[in-house]
UniProtKB/TrEMBL annotation:
Signal sequence range: none
Name of the protein in its database record: Sugar kinase
Pfam families linked to this entry: HTH_24 (PF13412), ROK (PF00480)
Record-level GO BP terms: D-xylose metabolic process
Keywords in alphabetical order: Carbohydrate metabolism, Kinase, Transferase, Xylose metabolism
Length: 385
């Protein structure tokens, strides 16, 4: 075997052992060897390395059946920390995430929609600095930054290819933010990292095929199969918001007419509402619906119908075991979840597929992107280390 192949194998083995301890702790060395097929010597060597580096600790536990003492391994949660950033048009959320995906410190602030790329990134750098200082975070433990944002993202090159919401095109975000902060930076589409977070910590634990839907300023989806994000050829799989529903329909902010998201997203709902009377916020629109104003009832009901249609289409295409509804609309108006689930079951999901999947609201809602981005950064770190 060539030297670099050997190194690669060693890294892979190390990552495998690490992942097993992380997800199944506390666990014995023997159980790891059995699961991975590695020799006990290899497992012990890797465990010794990881313990020495401060990632693991040993605990003694008496096993239930035999009353024998065995040594089990567990993670030191704060051994590795990363920064998770949710970068959105109007607001930026930043959190310090530990190895279990717990947010140990966080902050958020408003972003001016016309703010330049550099100004946005300089501010993120300054806020991370402030957050770590005010929470006395040991920066030696901080291994990198993960950023989740809406749009098409080249996750391998760290480039934002195109983001309608941010108005960015071909922005070398990872490189720029690294230059400002000094940390390694990983970036990805927000729904993809959010789905990862739900899979590891939230509504999709134990699911082997999760479809994550986002209804908010845009409409999107992400698919996780056996723990892996389905990326497609250019990391654009899941851009369901721009599938064409009606070629003669409303203009979408992507420049095409009749995209699915023009029936659902907040911007379109507000611009339709304003044809009737001045409505400044999505809350006002839902208020008018609750008050029984016919036009508001019509607009929101139509949006909910298209959400149910989206779920049917995704279920027909991907046959998932779990569908998670997330995004600003479902976060702000939790009643949507029940209504759409009912529409799915009674009308819109094709009969043979009814009952083959669970529909769940996002469990991490507001924090999903921060947690997922932080965990993505850690995954990159352990894979490359
Ligand atoms: Zn579009």
């Amino acid at each position: 075997m060539k030297k670099h192949d050997q190194d690669f194998m060693k890294r892979q083995n190390r990552l495998t052992v690490f992942e097993i301890i992380k997800s199944q702790q506390p666990i014995s060395r023997a159980a790891i060897a059995k699961q991975t097929g590695m020799s006990p010597t290899t497992v012990s060597r890797i465990v010794a390395e990881l313990t020495e580096e401060g990632y693991l600790l040993e605990t003694e536990q008496v096993s239930a059946g035999l009353g024998r003492k065995s040594t089990l391994l567990a993670m030191v949660d704060a051994a590795v920390l990363s920064v998770g950033v949710e970068l959105d048009r109007h607001r930026i959320h930043i959190g310090i995430v530990d190895i279990q995906g717990n947010v140990v410190a966080k902050t958020d602030y408003a972003r001016a929609t016309d703010e330049s790329v550099n100004a946005t990134l300089e501010r993120i750098g300054a806020e991370i600095d402030r957050l770590t200082k005010s929470n006395e975070i040991d920066c030696g433990r901080l291994i990198g930054i993960g950023v989740g944002l809406p749009g098409i993202v080249d996750n391998e090159k760290g480039v934002v290819v195109f983001s309608v919401q941010l108005g960015w095109k071909n922005v070398a975000l990872a490189e720029k933010l690294k230059a400002i902060t000094g940390y390694e930076v990983a970036i990805d589409n927000e729904l993809k990292v959010k789905a990862l977070a739900e899979h590891l910590k939230g509504a999709a634990i134990g699911s082997s095929r999760t479809a994550m839907l986002g209804f908010g300023n845009g409409v999107g989806s992400a698919l996780i199969v056996d723990g892996e994000i389905d990326r497609g050829k250019t990391n654009s799989a899941g851009e369901i918001g721009h599938t064409t529903i009606d070629p003669n329909g409303m203009m979408c902010d992507c420049g095409k007419a009749g995209c699915l998201q023009t029936y659902i997203n907040i911007h379109s709902l507000l611009s339709e509402a304003n044809k009737i009377r001045p409505v400044r916020t999505i809350e006002e629109l839902f208020e008018a619906r609750r008050a029984g104003e016919r036009w508001a009832v019509y607009l929101v009901d139509r949006a909910l119908m298209y959400m149910a249609i989206t779920i049917n289409n995704v279920v027909c295409m991907h046959n998932p075991d779990t569908v998670i509804m997330s995004g600003e609309l479902t976060d702000k108006f939790p009643e949507i979840y029940e209504e759409v689930a009912e529409l799915c079951i009674k009308r819109f999901v094709w009969e043979p597929l009814r009952g083959t999947f669970a529909i769940r609201p996002s469990e991490l809602s507001g924090q999903g992107v921060v947690i997922g981005s932080g965990l993505m950064s850690q995954n990159c770190f352990f894979a490359l280390e």
